[in-house]
């Protein structure tokens, strides 16, 4: 089985072209204003229009209110909502039911105990994403995209009733090891294909996707 790849935080036509051309299965657009990868709805709609059928367009939100979701979804043809904040299971269920989109819930991981949160979302989320929890001492940490990894051994041998993705500090150099150790069949990358926060490098995107294809 091929490794499914999501390129997240795409905010330029060049990065989108690299993701599409390299065979990404999902492309992520960030709707969290503090992020350097943030896009307004009009910008995101223009990029989404470049995505051919068969590639899933993901909208990343952090504890969004209904008005934010409604504004974005009316303008951008999002196919999967990614919730990357502290959304409780009830809120995830409400968003899924109200907006009629499948939802992927991010679980922040640093210790084995953090994985216990996953079970709370199995009935309300369509997919799970395991991301690195930022260290407490980290200044300016974002909900995701911090170029931080976690111990992939925590996921080894684990399975859930929902599809799941591995995220957090992945790049072309560590992808093979991360997949081998964790057993992930789907991965998500953002900072690992950037020159600096918010600036995607099309060559790094191509290299990441090439590495994934070879696994």
Describe the structure.
- By secondary structure, this protein is of the alpha/beta class.
- It has a single domain (4-214), classed as TIM Barrel.
- The protein is built from six helices and ten strands.
- The chain has helices at residues 13-22, 41-48, 66-75, 89-99, 175-182, 202-214; strands at residues 4-7, 26-30, 56-61, 80-83, 103-109, 127-132, 164-166, 186-189, 194-196, 199-200.
- The strands form two sheets. The protein has an eight-stranded parallel β-sheet. It has a two-stranded antiparallel ribbon with strand order 9-10.
- Helix 2 links the parallel strand 2 and strand 3 (56-61).
- The longest helix is centred in the C-terminal third of the chain and has 13 residues, at 202-214.
- It starts with a strand and ends with a helix.
Key descriptive features of the protein:
single chain, 215 residues, alpha/beta, TIM Barrel, eight-stranded parallel sheet, two-stranded antiparallel ribbon, 10 strands, 28% helix
Quick structural gist:
The protein has 215 residues and is of the alpha/beta class. Helix content is 28%, strand content 20%. The chain has one domain: TIM Barrel, CATH 3.20.20.70.
